[in-house]
Amino acid sequence: MDLTAGARWMTRAAFTGECMAGLSFDLIALQLFAGLALGAIYVLFAIGLSLIFGMLTVVNFAHGAFYMVGAYVGLYLLMLGGNFWLCLVAVPLIVGLFGLAVERVLIRPLYGRGIDYPLLLTFGLSYVMVELVRIAFGKTGYPFDTPEILQGAVNIGVGYFPLYRLFVIGATAVILLGLWLFLEKTSFGLIIRAGARDPQIVRVLGVDVSKVWLIVFGIGTAIAGFAGLLAAPLQGVIPEMGGTILAEAFVVTVVGGMGSIGGAVLAGLLVGVVVSMTSLFAPEMAKVSIFALMAVVLIVRPQGFFGRAGLMS
Amino acid sequence: MTRTTVKSGSLSRRRLLATAGAGAALAASPFRINLARADEPNIKIGFPVPLTGPYGAEAQDQVRAGQLAIAQFNEAGGLNGRKAELVVRDDKLNPGEAATRTLELVEKEKVNFVVGSLSAAVQLAINNVTKERGVIFNSISQSDAINEEKDFSRFTFHEALNPHMTSGAVGRYAFSKFGKKVAFLTADYAYGHEMVRGFLEVGKTFNIENVGDIRHPLGTSDFSTLLPRIQALKPDILCISNFGRDQQIVLKQATDFGVKKTTQIIAPLLSHASRVAAGPQAFEGVIGGCSFYWGIEDKHASTKGFNQAFSKMYDGKLPTDYGALGYGGVRTVLEAVKNAGSVDTDKVIAAMEALKYDYYKGPQYFRKCDHQSVQSVLVIKSKSANMKNDADVFEVISTDEPNEANLRTCAELGHKA
Amino acid sequence: MDEMSQILQRAPARPGGWFEFATRHRASIASLVVLVFPLVMPFTALAVNVLIYGLYALGFNLVYGYLGLLSFGHAALFGTGAYLCGIAIVHLGMPWYAAIAIGVIAGLLMAALIGVLAIRTRGIYFAMVTMALSQCVYYLFYQAVDWTGGENGLRGINVRSIDIFGLRLDFINPMIRYYVIAAFVIAAFFVLSRILASPFGAVIEAVRENETRARASGYDVTLTRLITFVLSGGFCGLAGALQALHLSIVPIEILHYDTSGIVVMIALLGGMGTFFGPMIGAAVFLLLENLVSVWTVHWQLVVGAIFMLCVLFFPAGIWGTLISRGRPR
Prior knowledge:
The complex is a heterotrimer.
Chain A: H1 3-16, H2 25-56, H3 63-79, H4 84-107, H5 116-137, E1 153-155, E2 160-162, H6 163-185, H7 187-197, H8 199-204, H9 209-235, H10 241-256, H11 261-281, H12 286-300
Antiparallel strand pairs in A: 1-2
Helix pairs in contact in A: 2-6, 2-7, 2-9, 2-10, 2-11, 3-4, 3-5, 3-9, 3-10, 4-9, 6-7, 10-11, 10-12, 11-12
Chain B: H1 13-28, E1 43-49, H2 56-75, E2 84-90, H3 95-108, E3 113-116, H4 120-132, E4 136-139, E5 156-158, H5 163-175, E6 181-187, H6 190-206, E7 209-216, H7 227-232, E8 237-241, H8 244-256, E9 264-267, H9 272-278, H10 280-283, E10 287-290, H11 301-313, H12 321-340, H13 345-354, E11 356-357, E12 364-366, E13 373-374, E14 377-382, E15 394-400
Parallel strand pairs in B: 1-2, 1-3, 3-4, 4-5, 6-7, 6-8, 8-9, 9-10
Antiparallel strand pairs in B: 10-14, 11-12, 12-13, 14-15
Chain C: H1 2-9, H2 18-24, H3 26-36, H4 44-66, H5 75-90, H6 96-118, H7 123-143, H8 145-148, E1 154-155, E2 161-164, E3 167-170, H9 174-197, H10 199-209, H11 211-216, H12 221-247, E4 249-250, H13 257-270, H14 277-295, H15 299-313, H16 317-326
Antiparallel strand pairs in C: 1-4, 2-3
């Protein structure tokens, strides 16, 4: 699929407003917005993954399962009679606590044993978590209604766009801001940034690294759960919902650079937009395109946009 | 298959409890295996279905209905006293696993016939294994490919509908009512393509204008990048050709994007389970096809009989579309066995080809060249008000009566005359 | 891989010990077990699956257990072997032995292709690249519907009889099918054993133990890795080809990363870096799956839990733990 032809179309269309293939500037803009909304979920998911990898050098194969659990916890709370706003606060707390437990009990014993073991453990953990949810909630999944206030579409100038998706973009921005403030302005955030840059120094300086790791894992999984809750009104909830996003999120973390928050943000949005745009021209190539992108980045610049070079030798 | 004989006085209590416990476990397990008391081996029907995975609920329904057919056969005396038994296996919705299970059923369990499964890819895999070994396979899942010469064999039968029939029925209804500009949103795999082909075929007679066919990869969870493009085409009708979760998600998101305000959405197949999983909002106003709905009992005595027998056996539950297929698939084989008077494969094939039946939804028969069951197709619409009971989620707005003209011709499928 | 290395570093027992005997005759012992295997399995098709997945795991083990590189893309090698063997029979009308050869060559070539692209990356990145590349292969095969059948899989790999030296064997007969496939697996055992025992085998282990020292000793580490990966592709390709013949179909799922994940689990379960481990892992995994599936639909819970237990407490796997406990000092 010739993407340069598409680029030429787009510029011409931007000037003329309409072109022979029926792709108007409005449509492209709408598609871009859709890509941003899609990317927002990727960003939230990938940030946690990147944080955990950057600090603990653990590839969390169960991250998708935490995402899924977040969606189900939200569903359950709503079933008990809560409201969506309550869930926005409660879900990350609950999932984060669960994440803390997992790190303490299952992952901590594996440090020092070799890079692969936590990866393998989280791989097995994802099977267990998915199956437990199946047992508790059934196999078929549930619909998840968009909260009333956020239903419907608004005219954003180039066309009608679902209000809830705008909310997702907004919520992501808020979380990113909060995370940035935490990392830049608090002393704990300072330790995390230092640790991501050089774990040895932090230990030498007398910081209790294991506590730091515990909290980072908790934060990472909490954000994943939050992402799952946000995604639930978009597609409903099923036990398998963590699987595909995990594979795609690996693309994001690798392209952005493992361990880099900024990289995860940029790459997440980029991947969302790439998927959105390829869908416009050649939908069947959308999936291949992101994996091919990942492979290319890994070969040409393995540390991604902003990752540390030589991170994993 | 075991014989439970009780010799009074020689049975210790522990033995009795253990046996009772095992019996209870078996009875409670999803595989209610019939314990036969005949001296002859049971007639075994292998039943590979996806008990694990997202369609587990539908599969359970198929098993239940299949067991009903077996029970009715046995209660009516079986084949001169010889009883039948359903040997259920989990194919995990994976063709490789299904092939392994079918090998187990044929080689180890020595089943006489195989009935199953739920996905197109899986049934084709099962079919490949059974036809190489000369075992009759009655498929209860949608597929166009199984009718084609390449996959077909004289041992292959197809009780279920195929995409061509369902899209044809829905197309015939919708294209005459809602407008001429038709857009397509299609899952990019064989099943999706088959459905679009069916729609386009029917569309020719109605002079529809194909304004665009947008493909999406299987397993897409986000259609936000495709829906604006569709809306820009301003279609009167949007044909969404996908299945299962993909369908549930796209209907929900299409509703969110306001597509329904300007466009009539049609789908070749709407399943009971999907409607329940996705909820009334997503399905509101959507028109589609299906093979069976319990609500047609007002029209067919056989449906009423089937509904009653099913309710009686399963605590008042009503059968769903998948359940009905399980029932039909097993019952046609057993009736053919009765008519043939034997389990010999050639005789049963001849009996099935000659079968004219009405077991659960009106008259049906198998077409000779491809063993496709010629049957009615229901056009349905989702219902969310005036529901008689929990299962009343659809209303039947039209019916395509059984007609060979609705199928692809034998020549088209590659069969020599 | 530190713990694995520790276990393997405990020096071989004194000559005459049972362990040394087992190591020298490992291929023969494995072959003997394979010959009597179908008698203990619930049904023959399952025994064949164990052979095939065991061979697949053996190929994977070459890269992970012996070389120390975790690959999450081995499904591409397994699947390509299966598809090309199938395509050779269905679309090109070739005889079964040529198709198997094509499957092996396909595995070698695909491994060379992926290897050349991936081999310079290290550690976790290697796992990610291999996963990404194998997903590309998955989507490409999916789209090539005319050759592969796409979502419906490749059907029609119908080999009814095998003619060897004038002897006509009925391939549909389960026992005969088992022994024909077993013959290939046994041949693979001997080839693998030879490779490991050769000087090249020693270089592989040297690279795993201490890459810098190996390089300093003059060995081309990158080339060693690449060659090992390619050899691994050959074994996995053979396993795939045999799978195609056994099931008479090739499902598209064979190329999905789940299939890569399964071989990782099997290898870990059995014991990486050991000769018998992969086969034992395959047997235990498939048997468990088969047995557990009969009693509960929640077999994934059981498998996942066992896998986690292994990672936490028995990282050397079943066989690895057995030999480290039972080895004479």
